[in-house]
Amino acid sequence: MKFNKRKLFLFSGALVTTVAAATGLAYVLANSKEEKKLTFKESSPIQKLYNLSMHHNLDYKYVPPTSMDLKFYNYKRDGIINKKASDIKNIDDIDEILEFKSNDLYQKYYVYGVEAFDEIGHLIIYLIDKKDWNGEEITDFSHINFENIQIDDFKQQKTPDIPVSIKREKEIDNSVGLKILNSDNEMTTGNARFVNYLSPDNESQYPTKWFLLSAGHLFFDQMDQEEFDLTLFHTNLEDKTVKAKVIQDGRDQWNFSAEVFKKFLPWEYRDKELHTYLDYAIIEINFETEEDAKKWTSTKPQNDIFSDSYRNNFSTFSGYFDLENGENVFKYIDTENKWLYLFDPVYFGLRINNSTQFFANDQIINSNGTYYVDLSTSIMPSGTKFKQGSSGVVEKINSIPNIKIAFNEKSGLWMPTKIVEEFEFFKDVFSSKISENAGIYLMSNFKYDIFNHNEKLNQSKSFDKIFETLYPNKTLGFKIQKNSN
Q1: Cβ(154)–Cβ(122) below 8 Å
Q2: Hey, what's the signal peptide range on this chain (predicted)?
């Protein structure tokens, strides 16, 4: 099967910058009396500032509000341009770059800590109401309300990647690199994770039939093949070619018509039948021996991505196939730069993309005359260093597996494996893009969970049902959590 992407430029947009007024700052600056200007140091209970990771830590649920309005403070540009954001470590450093316009604010707030983003020259300064802090380090932020000031224009510093030639012993965590030969005899590269396996009848045996989760667009040519060769690679293992088969993919994921999108297509496409598409694939892998399977996979509970005890690997070295140098190794990323996957430097925070691939990239997929609308709604990071080969990386975000989708060097997306709870959020998005009635219609059919069948969802497929069909009376090794929605 041959897939070709054709970009259809359907929309144009303008960057809209929104400025939120700081709340709880009812100060009349114009009426302030002439008085000696205070400093942060004069009343601060600490000298060394706490180094926070509100945006760096993907497991952390706190999202600070929009930066305090510039009308309440001045920042000293001359004291910034020759410094990196990470150079701001002490309360004296804050006084050198920042001042409040009113002493009332000095009397209201302490500076608690900072968070630096050297690669984009950005600093977040966290302020806390004096009545809410006794000067001790805070260990539980669940009931803490920070104000913050966000400052740009610091000296940017690019942190180099660890050289790809350095190979390190890497414990098998069920993540692998992939090499696939497409129909044009070209090598496609990507990533995947072994997310489950068929439990052997004999419990003393190690499983040899495993299921990979990856990005669907890596397997366009293989989706309808009975079997194909797939080459696995890893940092400290020799390449291994195995027999593989796509048993589930995102074509026609939903039981509803995509005709509502026709109005956005050029005239020559408006008579085409449209189908829905979600960018994922689940691939069955068969190892020849237990010894081979043990080299590439792990049945340890800590590697079960569905388990509540699983912790994502964003805080450890992450690897992918290095397209630039053609190296058949994992390329290591400095852990201090893991924010590159998570941080949106425009909105300063994790956010759900207000769009889909169809709207964002003006793209439909043509498969042998069948036209698919890509409805993969994703969590979007900016500035990712991942190349195209990074597609297919699977990690847990907000309690569920997410698949890395990367179409080029500069943009990447994390696609959730289920969208259920976010119904109201996306309903508004589609309503504004299409029309109120069409948006509500679409959102009523848009929820999905690729692993679990759910009567409330209008999806046409799920892994649990496909597994039951392929292997009746058999069990999976990792227990998939059932969705209650």
Answers
A1: yes
A2: 1-22
Residue pair 207/198 in contact (Cβ under 8 Å)? The answer is: yes
DSSP per position, 57-118: -TT------SPPPGGGEEE-GGGTTTS-GGG--BHHHHHHHEEESSHHHHHHEEEEEEEEET
Cα 345 to Cα 12: distance, rounded to the nearest angstrom: 22
Closest CA relative to residue 191, chosen from 283, 278, 291, 253 = 283
What's the average model confidence in pLDDT over 115-135? 89
Beta strand segments in 155-311, E = 175-181, 187-197, 209-214, 228-234, 237-251, 274-286
Place of tokens 């997410």: 402
Q: Which residues pair with 247 in a beta bridge?
A: none
- Does residue 256 sit in helix, strand or coil? coil
Residues 6+ apart with CB under 8 A from 16: none
Report d(CA 432, CA 444) in Å as an integer: 15
Q: Are 386 and 404 in contact (CB under 8 A)?
A: yes
Residues 6+ apart with CB under 8 A from 245: 225, 226, 227, 228, 283, 284
Provide CB contacts within 8 A for 254, sequence distance 6+: 276, 375, 445, 446, 448, 458, 459, 460
CA dist 43 and 31 (Å) reads 24
Q: Rounded to an integer, what distance in angstroms lies between the CA atom of residue 362 and that of residue 8?
A: 5
What's the mean per-residue pLDDT of the chain? 75
Kindly report the pTM of this predicted structure: 0.67
Return d(Cα 442, Cα 258) in angstroms, integer: 9
Residue type, 239: D
Residue 181: strand, helix, or coil: strand
- The pLDDT of residue 463: 98
**Do residues 313 and 320 lie in contact, with contact meaning Cβ atoms separated by under 8 Å?**
no
Say how many C-beta atoms besides its own lie within 10 A of residue 300's C-beta: 11
* DSSP-derived 3-state class of residue 51: strand
Which residues lie across from 114 on neighbouring strands?
A: 51, 125
Q: Could you tell me if 464 and 453 are in contact, meaning their C-beta atoms sit under 8 angstroms apart?
A: yes
Give, for 41, the enclosing helix (H) or strand (E): helix 40-43
C-beta of residue 343 within 8 angstroms of C-beta of residue 85: no
Inter-axis angle of helices 436-446 and 423-433, nearest 10:
140
What does the pLDDT look like over 167-223, one tens digit per residue?
Answer: 455 567 898 888 888 777 888 788 899 999 999 999 999 999 999 999 998 898 899
The Cα 400–Cα 282 span in angstroms is 16
> What are phi and psi for residue 210, nearest 5 degrees?
-125, 160
Burial 132-157 (b: 16+ CB within 10 A, else e): eeeeeebeeeeeeebbbbebeebeee
Domain ranges of the chain: 40-151, 175-471
Tokens representing 150 are: 């966000």
